[in-house]
Amino acid sequence: MTYVHGYHQREQVRLQDQASTLVELLHSDTVYPDGSRVLEAGCGVGAQTVTLAGKNPGAAITSVDISAGSIAEARGKIRKAGYTNVVFEQGDIFHLPFEPGSFDHIFVCFVLEHLAQPIKALRSLESFLKTGGTITVIEGDHGSAYFHPDNESVRKAIQCQVELQKRAGGNANIGRELYPLLQAAGFSSTVVSPRQVYIDASRPELVEGFIKNTFTAMIEGVRQSSIDAELIDATTFDEGIAGLHRTAQKDGVFCYTFFKAVAVKR
Ligand SMILES: C[S@@+](CC[C@H](N)C(=O)[O-])C[C@H]1O[C@@H](n2cnc3c(N)ncnc32)[C@H](O)[C@@H]1O
Q: Which residues of the chain have pLDDT under 50?
């Protein structure tokens, strides 16, 4: 694999920055009734788990990830935050050890974008839901990034990330597909809400937290792999990164849309 989220220190810091900046935008309505059993699939280093646990103190949350290292990191984070409503298990979404209908709700964030078979993953998760239970899926979509000043090199650098993720079996533009994916997996009552991050200089916390520490850091992270794969030359890539930083200046603007879907198991 040329590119994997979550396993390196810098990635962990980036995912954490991303999570704290976006908490309100993505999670203001991630609320589960007291007594609910919630499965978080692909919890990574726990960036969303902390929010889920804090916003839903009465829910019993089970968070799983295929990476033992990420699980250890996530467990430490939850312990440090003092939450006691989460248990962690290492597991593969396609082979989870739970009984059918074990959960009232499932939560999946920034995971489908990495899977070659997202519909199969959704079907597998569906089997662990009670009838009438919900699945919440959150994904980004790199095709939704636009900015001022516009810059061809920025678009080329972003496209490198999209192409590398595709070569690794994933889809960095999956956000726009959540409705058809959930329908194809057999869910009903699917509702998708686009959540746009709009950033100009009047929102300095997002200039730092999203333009610089999230999006630009993510694109910078694929510099060497992109050059090695001959997707781009070093000069164009570096112009792209400079162009991204340019959007963070006082007359710059940056937009990106996440998609949040909630669907019901029939
Ligand atoms: C980009 S991270 C997102 C982590 C977390 N949900 C967040 O929003 O910060 C994607 C995670 O999915 C996990 N993952 C990928 N394939 C998986 C699978 N088949 N089963 C379980 N977890 C998987 C990876 O190990 C990684 O931790």
A: 1-3
In a domain, 1, yes or no: no
Q: DSSP letters of 86-102?
A: EEEEE--GGG--PPTT-
CATH of the domain at 99: 3.40.50.150
Q: What is the pTM of this model?
A: 0.93
> What are the tens digits of pLDDT across the range 213-238?
999 999 999 999 999 999 999 999 99
Pocket test for ligand 1, best of 52, 108, 114 (most atoms within 8 A of CB): 114
The ligand 1 atom nearest the CA atom of 70: 27
Total number of domains in the chain? 1
State the Cα–Cα distance between residues 81 and 222, nearest whole angstrom.
32
What is the rounded distance in angstroms from the CA atom of residue 14 to the CA atom of residue 212? Answer: 10
